[in-house]
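Appendix B, Record 12. Input sequence as logged:
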Amino acid sequence: MRKTRTGFTVLSFLLNVVGLGAQSGEPGMKIEVQIYNYSAFSAETLARTEQETSRIFERIGVTTIWRFCPHTSQEEVRNEACTLPEAPTRLTLRLFSNSKANRGKLGADVFGYALLPANEGFGVAANVYADRIQKPPDGGECAEVILGRLIAHELGHLLLGRNGHSAAGIMHTPWRREDLELHRGGAMLFLPGEAKRIRAQVLARMSSANTR
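Logged structural output:
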């Protein structure tokens, strides 16, 4: 299993993003995201996060369905949606606390990573250190929106596979502080080529799920 990490730095480079208008996908193109929340973000505050992530994927014609899952097997009995069999269109996202990040001895600029299979299989799990996300002190977006963009980035890695980083857009790295501000929302989207690859990947996953 290979980890693809995402970090935020203040290194500067110019984003030049074009052709990011809304794009349509096949009818019914969607992915499910099962959320296991171990962070300080409440379900209520994560509603804004979900809106931001969904907005980014809707621009490329992909619907995201979020399901908040319980932490224990006893609780799962009361939440059948999170006990469904594994499927390539059903992704797992874990939101971790600062203490989890500290135990892993991760660098301060690491905010998440996607777990990619060693073979050409489908990646289905990503981790995000949500409690490391803080609102910039100089008028930037709220933490929930920043977290929504970071989640979109990590889900993008699962759907794009290896070599998912780019020089611009939501998949660029490193991210600078200016990228997290309100007016940068239009630039924090998938590039046209990435959108095409993601839609093809979602279709392949849906086809694979239907043949099981």
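Helices lie at 46-58, 73-76, 98-103, 143-160, 192-210.
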